[in-house]
């Protein structure tokens, strides 16, 4: 009806707030989840975002953006260490967020937060806004977090050098070295961060995990028993569920020129090499990787991002390297990774085993060489090798001969071919969970119904 004729107005659109942790591996899954909620449930989305690693609202015209002062001091921002940023944000976000939420007049149904943002959850509770946690790591990783107090009581942590290969029977197939650990922060600080994650999860109205039922069935079942929450949904891989392009939230410029180069390479011949957005190596290791790749004789696409070598803002390639790889290798600063992994020329992925990279590889049936560095990467690599059989770990000192052997093992040998076959089986399981009655679609439906019920 027209104005004043008493006709019924459509019900106001429900609004969901999302607050990602401002790091690449956390922003992407949150923006994909927001995209899925927007497309599926017709939900309006407000993204709360920080100045630190700020997103570009112009790239997401369908969302509303509200800046929240993050309280991250300039020196911490410049260093960009994830734990320091988490601690700074949690210490500072309270008043800033309270006023941002007060300005947000949409009467939001709920707030979806990264599990690292306990302080944000506290503000939401004060104003009666329900929170749902998005876990951007695996279900196994969340189990490890919840087990952290037990792991200390039983003496697995802090880990001793002599016990690194000891199994942790409470969390099969993990060994002590696979537990969530970091070298860049003190153990006490890490324990504090994990305790807060656990509190955030336990205080939430429900948890969404970026995984899928067929990938981690036992871990999800145990988590559901261990956490008494209204819902615990496996709604991944989120980048596959969402129709949004990742470029919208990439913090670095993705060099699309590599796709033209991949087009010229034989099917399954190229090794894609990337160590994610945070991992760093020393200059000696960098040299070994460079010459190991050259000596492997395989075509490769290598992501050398700024700061890949510790304390180097722009990384110089070794002398003679560019001549040695002419036509056979390509080095870029940042890749459109999902497109690369989906390219028919790519036959293997040498990865740092970040959870997003792992899921993206699994989603395209690409087997992996794993070079985990810290946090959840060790356990991701353990599952890749030991549970799914779609890759293996390159362990110990980085040395060009070992690298060459690893590339041969993955790309040329029978063992690598078997990993590729298993990766293809897993890829089909991803496709199944994404079908209209697939487990991840059902999880999204449940999440949307929950939001609409609020
Ligand atoms: C970090 C930790 O490494 C990871 O284990 C944890 O789960 C999340 O935080 P990150 O190092 O960023 O994540 O790795 P990962 O989780 O693999 O995410 C990297 C993302 O950057 C992926 O989505 C990948 O597609 C993207 N990427 C990577 C690019 O777009 N281009 C590149 O060249 C490399």
Fill in the keyword field for this structure.
454 residues, alpha/beta, six-stranded parallel β-sheet, 18 helices, 13 strands, binds uridine-5'-diphosphate-xylopyranose
Question: What can you tell me about this protein's structure?
Answer:
Belongs to the UDP-glycosyltransferase family. InterPro entries: UDP_glucos_trans (IPR002213). One of its GO terms (molecular function) is 2,4-dihydroxy-7-methoxy-2H-1,4-benzoxazin-3(4H)-one 2-D-glucosyltransferase activity. This protein is α/β, with parallel strands linked by helices. 44% of the residues lie in helices and 13% in strands. The protein is built from 18 helices and 13 strands. The chain has helices at 24-41, 74-79, 82-103, 118-126, 139-146, 148-153, 187-202, 217-226, 238-241, 257-263, 283-296, 321-324, 337-342, 355-364, 377-387, 400-411, 414-434, 439-453, and strands at 15-19, 44-49, 64-67, 110-114, 131-135, 206-209, 232-234, 270-274, 300-303, 329-332, 346-351, 368-370, 391-393. A seven-stranded parallel β-sheet has the order 3-2-1-4-5-6-7, with helices on both faces. Helix 15 links the parallel strand 12 (368-370) and strand 13 (391-393). The longest helix has 22 residues, at 82-103. The radius of gyration is 22 Å and the shape is globular. The protein starts with 14 loop residues before the first strand and ends with a helix. The model has no long low-confidence stretch (mean pLDDT 92). The chain binds uridine-5'-diphosphate-xylopyranose. Residues 23-25, 28, 136-137, 250, 254, 274, 276-279, 303, 334-335, 337-338, 354-357, 360, 375-377 line the site of uridine-5'-diphosphate-xylopyranose (UDX).
């Amino acid at each position: 009806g027209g104005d004043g004729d008493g006709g019924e107005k459509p019900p106001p659109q429900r609004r969901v707030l999302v607050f990602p942790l401002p790091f690449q591996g956390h922003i992407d899954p949150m923006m994909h989840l927001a995209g899925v909620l927007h497309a599926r449930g017709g939900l309006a989305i407000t993204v709360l975002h920080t100045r630190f690693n700020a997103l570009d609202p112009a790239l997401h015209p369908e969302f509303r953006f509200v800046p929240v002062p993050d309280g991250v001091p300039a020196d911490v921002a410049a260093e960009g260490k994830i734990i320091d940023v988490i601690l700074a944000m949690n210490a500072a976000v309270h008043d800033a967020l309270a006023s941002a939420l007060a300005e947000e007049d949409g009467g939001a149904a709920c707030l979806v937060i990264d599990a690292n943002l306990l302080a944000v959850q506290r503000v939401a509770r004060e104003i009666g806004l329900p929170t749902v946690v998005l876990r951007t790591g695996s279900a196994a990783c969340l189990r490890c977090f919840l087990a952290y107090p037990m792991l200390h009581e039983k003496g697995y942590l802090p880990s001793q050098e002599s016990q690194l290969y000891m199994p942790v029977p409470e969390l099969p197939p993990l060994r002590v070295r696979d537990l969530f650990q970091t070298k860049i922060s003190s153990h006490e600080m890490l324990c504090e961060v994990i305790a807060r994650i656990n509190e955030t999860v336990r205080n939430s109205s429900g948890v969404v995990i970026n995984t899928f039922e067929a990938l981690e069935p036992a871990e999800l079942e145990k988590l559901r028993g261990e956490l008494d929450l209204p819902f615990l949904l496996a709604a991944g891989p989120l980048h596959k569920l969402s129709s949004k392009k990742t470029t919208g939230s990439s913090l670095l410029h993705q060099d699309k020129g590599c796709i033209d180069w991949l087009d010229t390479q034989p099917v399954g011949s190229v090794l894609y090499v990337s160590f994610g957005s945070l991992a760093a190596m020393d200059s000696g290791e960098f040299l070994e990787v460079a010459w190991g790749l050259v000596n492997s004789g395989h075509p490769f696409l290598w992501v050398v991002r700024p700061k890949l070598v510790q304390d180097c803002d722009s990384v110089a390639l070794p002398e003679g390297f560019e001549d040695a790889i002419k036509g056979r290798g390509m080095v870029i600063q940042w890749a459109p990774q999902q497109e690369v992994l989906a390219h028919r020329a790519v036959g293997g992925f040498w990865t740092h085993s970040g959870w997003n990279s792992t899921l993206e590889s699994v989603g395209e049936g690409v087997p992996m060489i794993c070079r985990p560095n810290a946090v959840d990467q060790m356990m991701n690599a353990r599952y890749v090798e030991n549970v799914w059989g779609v890759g293996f770990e390159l362990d110990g000192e980085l040395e060009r001969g070992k690298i060459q052997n690893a590339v041969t093992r993955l790309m040329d040998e029978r063992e690598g071919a078997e990993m590729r076959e298993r990766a293809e089986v897993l890829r089909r399981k991803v496709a199944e969970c994404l079908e209209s009655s697939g487990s991840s679609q059902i999880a999204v439906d449940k999440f949307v119904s929950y939001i609409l019920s609020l």
